[in-house]
Design goal:
With 347 residues, the protein is an all-alpha fold. The protein contains 14 helices and two strands, in the order H-H-H-H-H-H-H-E-E-H-H-H-H-H-H-H. The longest helix has 31 residues.
């Protein structure tokens, strides 16, 4: 029994990284001339940098037991706002980017306040605030694209997405930096431990003196901050302000975060797991795309992977509960509350 338990632990912890390596190997064998090339790897890193950042943003509220559905709308508003400030208001691009990133954190904090203090379910609250953001995006653009003039955008701004460092795209290093920061915060600082306690059992967190409402606000503020950064990169990539862009990134972000909670640290959202999950999605989508899959293959892949991620997350949580029960046959009665990430608000 112990041997099977150990194997299951190893599979749960390292199965997804192994799957990423296996997928890369399979597609490299099937497409030897195009897939295992430096240009293809660089393209994958560039294309998946924004979904990866959003997945990391989603990870923070999930660690606190909440879900932020406003990220897609926030991404659309952020990138449009950057273009509006730079193109139509003549704001220097560094100042415009800083304002949008800080504004994203503020909007996230407002989301957290609505969830924590108004006691509205996070799914409903963020869907409502996201709709408001979408309305603001439409009002700001009047339903049309923001297009730069003949002189175009400053090269230093577009280099945020187009430039290379050590042969790899700059956005990939932005993702790596975000992963390192989030890993330190969640795994090495008291803030992360408190956030996980709030997410797993808010009543127990209240009993031991953790301010659950404040940490809920912090979680959504962090999510909004990351969304603002992703919006800046999206503006540098698109080089136009498109009011309809944003929602397409929401599903891949949740797939990456939920699937990531099943690996590295199974049973809880974590930065390294999210990075591995995004890598699996990126390799899979790039591979099936180069094999000539139809346009509907991408949403099919994302939807199927989301269902698998949710199922695996639930299975992992149940396995952890069984493991705890096996080691302690007479566990103390715990306050009611699910151990897996949940969507309801702190009572």
């Amino acid at each position: 029994m112990t041997s099977w338990s150990a194997r299951g632990h190893v599979l749960g912890t390292y199965g997804l990284p192994a799957l990423a390596a296996l997928l890369f190997l399979v597609f490299s064998i099937a497409l030897p001339d195009t897939f295992p090339t430096r240009d293809n790897v660089s393209s994958i890193l560039s294309d998946q940098s924004i979904p990866a950042l959003l997945a990391l943003g989603v990870t923070i509220p999930i660690a606190a037991g909440r879900f932020d559905l406003s990220l897609g709308y926030g991404l659309g508003l952020a990138h449009v706002l950057v273009m509006h400030l730079v193109v139509e208001e003549g704001t220097p691009w560094p100042l415009a980017c800083l304002a949008v990133v800080l504004g994203g954190a503020l909007v996230g904090a407002l989301n957290g306040a609505v969830v924590a203090f108004a006691r509205i379910d996070s799914l409903i609250a963020t869907l409502g605030t996201g709709s408001i953001m979408y309305a603001l995006t439409g009002w700001l653009t009047d339903g049309s694209r923001i297009v730069p003039g003949p002189e175009g955008l400053p090269a230093s701004f577009t280099d945020l997405y187009d430039a290379r460092f050590l042969g790899l795209p700059v956005p990939a290093f932005c993702v790596l930096a975000a992963v390192v920061v989030l890993w330190v915060v969640l795994e090495r600082l008291p803030f992360g431990r408190y956030l996980y306690v709030v997410g797993s059992n808010p009543r127990a967190a209240d009993i031991i003196g953790i301010p659950t409402r404040r940490y809920c606000v912090y979680a959504f503020a962090g999510s909004g901050l990351v969304t603002g950064i992703a919006g800046v990169l999206l503006a540098a990539q698109q080089q136009t302000g498109n009011p309809s862009v944003g929602l397409d990134y929401l599903l891949p972000a949740f797939v990456g975060a939920l699937l990531g909670s099943t690996t590295i640290r199974p049973g809880r959202a974590n930065a390294l797991g999210t990075l591995v999950a995004v890598s699996v999605l990126a390799i899979g989508l790039a591979g099936i795309g180069q094999l000539g899959a139809q346009f509907w293959a991408t949403p099919l892949f994302n939807g199927s992977t989301l269902l698998m991620a949710v199922g695996l997350a639930g299975y992992t949580a149940r396995r952890r509960l069984r493991a705890r029960a096996a080691t302690d046959p007479h566990p103390p009665a715990a306050p009611p509350g699910p151990s897996a990430p949940r969507a309801d608000d702190t009572p």
